[in-house]
């Protein structure tokens, strides 16, 4: 039995972007078909795979449940997939839910009390769980016991409920938001890194084989270079390039076909999409590279402040195209080069003083 809570993939970025890291309904269905079934099939994350393999092998040799596992990292890097692999390697069923779905301690108590011995509980976005549920989880993880409160006020009674040994796999995109008492109860913590282009090429070739798509090595390299280091995005781009190859070519994905398809979908050679380029274009053309305040920049591109800050900026900063400073956002020399513009010899005085607004 594998009940699936759609909220488990609630790391949405608020927009429907081809290069967005969030998973929609179509992504979830395709990911289920493309997911590797064991650690040997899992591509990338070499250190995490090796460490996790030792943890699981040792647990199997002892005939015990595996230690609780915490996986952190950006959306789309394989946290859900690894949780399913953990269950498969341990020969145990898996229960999937998410932090936002657990708003009361009773919600968590209902899930914990129905677990079977050795079962894996995958809790996505664990940092978004309510505080009362979080505190209940402390005792459940450490002592395999929860106290269920019956009644209210002075007459309330705590009834201890023993739980069978289980393995909790927590996933978070913001490990820093986890309180230390919760973080310290995990026996193994793995941080998921962004993928190198060569690793993404392996992901794309594997997915292409499962999707029965013919792809050249250079075609796979072209898609990998625009996938922002994220397998979920690589698989999504592969499906869109497959559609283009089917309609406008002979069905085979070459470098030219991949480049033509991604040009149609406005994903450039570096993985930037329309929103990313709009932010850079406004920063360079309207404000001479900054510094400029976030609110002003958001108005200039016609987006909400949160959309610019949480959707576009992280990748631009990671790519070295934009910098956050106390005075505002500033474009780097690489941003001017990427858009084919020539930086001014000297920024205007008002830009130097950061007077474009907070």
TrEMBL record:
Domain note: Has 3 domains, the large (RuvB-L) and small ATPase (RuvB-S) domains and the C-terminal head (RuvB-H) domain. The head domain binds DNA, while the ATPase domains jointly bind ATP, ADP or are empty depending on the state of the subunit in the translocation cycle. During a single DNA translocation step the structure of each domain remains the same, but their relative positions change.
Keyword Cytoplasm: yes
Residue segments, region Head domain (RuvB-H): 269-358
CDD domains on file: AAA
Pfam family, one: WHD_RuvB
Key words of the record: ATP-binding, Cytoplasm, DNA damage, DNA recombination, DNA repair, DNA-binding, Helicase, Hydrolase, Nucleotide-binding
Keyword Isomerase applies: no
Domain AAA+ ATPase: 65-198
Annotated region (Disordered), positions in chain: 1-25
Protein's name in the database: Holliday junction branch migration complex subunit RuvB
Lineage: Bacteria, Bacillati, Actinomycetota, Actinomycetes, Kitasatosporales
EC number from the UniProt entry: 3.6.4.-
Family: Belongs to the RuvB family.
UniProt xrefs under Gene3D superfamilies: 1.10.8.60, P-loop containing nucleotide triphosphate hydrolases, Winged helix-like DNA-binding domain superfamily/Winged helix DNA-binding domain
Binding site for Mg(2+): 80
Binding-site positions, DNA: 305, 324, 329
Principal location class: cytoplasm
Chain positions covered by the region annotation Small ATPAse domain (RuvB-S): 196-266
UniProt: ATP binding residues: 34-35, 76, 79-81, 142-144, 185, 195, 232
Source organism: Streptantibioticus silvisoli
Catalysed reactions listed for this entry: ATP + H2O = ADP + phosphate + H(+)
Locations listed in the record: Cytoplasm
One GO term describing the cellular component: cytoplasm
Sequence segments annotated as region (Large ATPase domain (RuvB-L)): 15-195
Chain ranges passing through the membrane: none
Biological role: The RuvA-RuvB-RuvC complex processes Holliday junction (HJ) DNA during genetic recombination and DNA repair, while the RuvA-RuvB complex plays an important role in the rescue of blocked DNA replication forks via replication fork reversal (RFR). RuvA specifically binds to HJ cruciform DNA, conferring on it an open structure. The RuvB hexamer acts as an ATP-dependent pump, pulling dsDNA into and through the RuvAB complex. RuvB forms 2 homohexamers on either side of HJ DNA bound by 1 or 2 RuvA tetramers; 4 subunits per hexamer contact DNA at a time.
């Amino acid at each position: 039995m594998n009940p699936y809570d759609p909220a488990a993939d609630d790391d949405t970025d608020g927009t429907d972007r081809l290069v967005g890291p969030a998973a929609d309904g179509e992504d979830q269905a395709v990911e289920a078909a493309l997911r590797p079934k064991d650690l040997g099939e899992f591509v990338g994350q070499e250190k995490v795979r090796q460490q996790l393999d030792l943890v699981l092998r040792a647990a199997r040799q002892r005939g015990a449940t595996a230690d609780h596992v915490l996986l952190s990292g950006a959306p789309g890097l394989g946290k859900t997939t690894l949780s399913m692999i953990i269950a498969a390697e341990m020969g145990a069923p898996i229960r999937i839910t998410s932090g936002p779905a657990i708003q009361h301690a009773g919600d968590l108590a209902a899930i914990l009390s129905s677990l079977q011995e050795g079962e894996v509980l995958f809790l996505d976005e664990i940092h978004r769980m309510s505080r009362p549920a979080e505190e209940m989880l402390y005792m459940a993880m450490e002592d395999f016991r929860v106290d269920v409160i019956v009644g209210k006020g002075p007459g309330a009674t705590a009834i201890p409920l023993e739980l069978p040994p289980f393995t909790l796999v927590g996933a978070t995109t913001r490990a820093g938001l986890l309180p230390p008492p919760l973080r310290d109860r995990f026996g193994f913590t793995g941080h998921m890194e962004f993928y190198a282009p060569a690793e993404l090429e392996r992901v794309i070739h594997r997915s292409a084989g499962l999707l029965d798509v013919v792809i050249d090595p250079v075609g796979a390299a072209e898609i990998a270079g625009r996938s922002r280091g994220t397998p979920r995005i690589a698989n999504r781009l592969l499906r869109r390039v497959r559609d283009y190859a089917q309609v406008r070519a002979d069905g085979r994905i070459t470098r030219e076909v991949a480049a033509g398809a991604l040009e149609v979908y406005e994903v450039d050679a570096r993985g930037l999409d329309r929103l990313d380029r709009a932010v850079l274009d406004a920063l360079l053309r309207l404000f001479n590279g900054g510094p400029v305040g976030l609110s002003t920049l958001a108005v200039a591109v016609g987006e909400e402040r949160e959309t610019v800050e949480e959707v576009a900026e992280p990748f631009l900063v990671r790519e070295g195209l934009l910098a956050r400073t106390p005075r505002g956002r500033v474009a780097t020399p690489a941003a001017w080069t990427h858009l084919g513009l020539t930086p001014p010899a000297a920024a205007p005085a008002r830009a130097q003083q950061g007077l474009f607004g907070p």
